[in-house]
Design brief:
- The structure is a single chain.
- The protein is α/β, with parallel strands linked by helices.
- It contains 11 helices and 10 strands.
- Strands 6-7-8-3-9-10 form a 6-stranded mixed beta sheet, with helices on both faces. Strands 2-1-4-5 form a 4-stranded antiparallel beta sheet, with helices on one face.
- Strand 7, helix 7 and strand 8 form a beta-alpha-beta unit.
- Helix 3 packs parallel to helix 6, helix 5 crosses helix 6 and helix 6 packs parallel to helix 7.
- The longest helix has 21 residues.
- The chain binds adenosine-5'-triphosphate (ATP) and magnesium ion.
- The site of magnesium ion (MG) has 3 residues, from helix 1.
């Protein structure tokens, strides 16, 4: 529970003439659940892409566990202990739930293609270890009974839990969740909230993007607000709820986008 795990310093990102992010500074401390909110197009997913190495920043830098990570590949950043989920579901429908989770485990897997074709005892041991870890992640989120079901048959609520399990199976230090509760009904949303709290209780730090304000306010220790690429506020949930700039930024948006 000490020190900045993640530090975003002066990050900017342009797409041609469009400024998606401008001079964004923020930090995440170990043990926190931090919310990143803002109207549609504010730059939240772009910032997640930059933190996770999917996109390079055009300005500024990101450090994770004291190391500069901007400019490194998503794979290298994942290997340092950063996992993420994507706003759009990224599931292989024909593969089983378990195999979908195994896709997220390879940060720890060392077996190459040859080793997969001609598995040695060491490789088989490693595969067993990865399967155990994947099953553990599925039980953690409460869907171990679906391990052998094709992922394509799952309803949205369980697909999102599968994505959470996959990100957890890599045993991250920091977990980034991009709208993991989008489209979920109230029961599924509260299951997700319980899971996110349980993740934090395991010692994993969480940075999440979410439009459901009730969920954000109930879950987050601290909130950062982006609007049109700029950070307009940062603080505790109760401070953010009464912040004039935040209220004004959201007035232009459809309320359903904010609260649904
Ligand atoms: N690859 C890209 N090429 C061009 N423009 C992009 C690209 N990715 C994002 N943008 C633009 O950057 C801005 C920020 O987009 P981003 O997806 O980060 O917003 P967001 O806050 O995640 O929005 P939402 O809440 O709708 O998911 C938007 O104007 C978007 O159209
Ligand atoms: Mg987004």
């Amino acid at each position: 529970m000490q020190g900045d795990l993640l530090r975003v310093s002066g990050v900017g990102r342009r797409f041609g003439g469009l400024v998606a992010l401008r001079d964004v500074h923020m930090t995440v401390r170990a043990g926190e659940i931090v919310g990143l909110i803002g109207p549609n197009g504010a730059g939240k997913s772009t910032l997640f892409h930059i933190i996770s190495g999917v996109l390079p920043p055009t300005e500024g830098e990101v450090t994770f566990r004291g190391e500069r990570i901007s400019g490194r590949s998503p794979h290298e950043i994942a290997a340092l202990g950063l996992s993420r989920t994507f706003q759009n579901i990224q599931v292989f429908g024909d593969l089983s739930v378990l195999d979908n989770v195994l896709v997220g485990c390879h940060r720890h897997g060392r077996a190459g293609l040859l080793a997969t074709a001609f598995p040695s005892r060491r490789v088989r041991d490693e595969e067993r270890r990865l399967r155990e870890r994947a099953l553990k992640a599925l039980s953690f989120v409460g869907i171990a009974d679906l391990a052998f079901t094709p992922a394509g048959l799952l309803p949205l609520g369980q697909l999102r839990l599968l994505e959470l399990a996959r990100a957890l199976a890599a045993e991250p230090i920091l977990l980034l969740l991009d709208e993991i509760a989008a489209g979920l009904n109230p029961v599924e949303t509260s299951t997700m909230a319980e899971n996110i709290r349980a993740v934090r209780d395991q010692g994993i730090t969480v940075l999440l993007v979410e439009h459901d304000m009730d969920l954000v306010m109930a879950l987050c220790d601290r909130i950062v607000v982006l609007d049109q690429g700029e950070k307009i506020a940062e603080g505790f949930p109760e401070e953010i709820q009464r912040d004039e700039r935040v209220i004004r930024a959201y007035l232009g948006a459809e309320w359903e986008e904010v609260s649904a």
